[in-house]
Amino acid sequence: MSEFIIDEDFDFFLANFGLPDWQQPVEQDTINFFNNKLPDRLLFYWQKFGFCRFKQGLFWIVNPADYEDGLAIWLGEDVLKQDNYYIIARSGFGKLYVWGEKTGHAYTITPTRGWVYHEEGDTKDIANGHANRNLQFFFSLRKIKTNDQYDNNSKSLFDRCVKKFGALDYDEMFGFVPALAISDNASIKNVDKMNIFVHLSLLPDLIEIQHIDFKKLGQMAFGVDEDTNLPDLNNLT
């Protein structure tokens, strides 16, 4: 790889999220393993910033290898046959951003709600050699608001959770007890700090995983399925 030069899209991301406040250097063996699997631009970010935390854990750039087991549970066998998928980033409330070798940003998983949202993806662009460009766009589109969680009065929870529990470590997330998919009570009284890997593996035993795409969102919005709660679109991306 050539010398790292930061691009405008990631610079825009850093303008919103700030520089990392925790970093773990990425070993060359890891870089080598993901070479030709993930975009070179992402590997550049790893070399420059490592696997890292932003805003005390609101957003993370993560090692996909740590999330392989959880990803398999949430996507399921049928989806896994379609592409090689990797979790490249996540939020402090466990939202997982899934990148496919052929499809780019293919899924966004919101475990607190049990949602697996099928993104439009970037299949044509990646087939035409534009994976790096789409990876840059992915970061430029991240927003603080959509990585936060909101209570039933539409008030931000993350900063209050940090004040109550402290900043998140690499293996930690904020979750709800009981899960929002069960109670729909997004009160800080129901929030706890938990191990993200344990939570991702246990939560599917307690809730129903819902695979959602744009068509299903339309059905839900227009009341085709009256028993299904409409996801908050602001919390999907």
Please sum up the structure shown.
With 237 residues, the protein is α+β, with helices and mostly antiparallel strands. The chain is 36% helix and 19% strand.
What does the model show?
The chain is an alpha+beta fold. It has a domain at 8-147. The chain has helices at residues 8-17, 28-34, 40-49, 68-75, 77-80, 123-127, 131-140, 144-147, 158-165, 180-183, 196-202, 214-221; strands at 22-24, 51-54, 59-61, 85-91, 96-100, 104-110, 115-118, 172-176, 191-195, 210-212. It has an 8-stranded mixed beta sheet with strand order 1-2-3-4-5-6-7-10, with helices on both faces. It has a two-stranded antiparallel sheet with strand order 8-9. A hairpin with a 4-residue loop joins strand 2 (51-54) and strand 3. Helix 1 (8-17) runs parallel beside helix 7 (131-140). The longest helix has 10 residues, at 8-17. The radius of gyration is 17 Å and the shape is globular. It starts with 7 loop residues before the first helix and ends in a 16-residue tail after the last helix.
For this entry, give a set of tags.
237 residues; alpha+beta; two-stranded antiparallel ribbon; 12 helices; disordered C terminus
Secondary-structure topology with pairs:
Layout lengths: L7 H10 L4 E3 L3 H7 L5 H10 L1 E4 L4 E3 L6 H8 L1 H4 L4 E7 L4 E5 L3 E7 L4 E4 L4 H5 L3 H10 L3 H4 L10 H8 L6 E5 L3 H4 L7 E5 H7 L7 E3 L1 H8 L16
Parallel strand pairs: 7-10
Antiparallel strand pairs: 1-2, 2-3, 3-4, 4-5, 5-6, 6-7, 8-9
- Mean of pLDDT: 90
How would you sum up the global shape? globular
The helix-and-strand class reads alpha+beta
Largest sheet: 8 strands, mixed
Helix run count: 12
Q: Element order, helices and strands?
A: HEHHEEHHEEEEHHHHEHEHEH
Give Rg in angstroms. Answer: 17 Å
Distance between the termini: 30 Å
Number of strands: 10
Strand content: 15-25%
Helix content: 25-40%
Q: Going across the biggest sheet, name each strand in turn.
A: 1-2-3-4-5-6-7-10
Outline the low-pLDDT stretches: 220-235
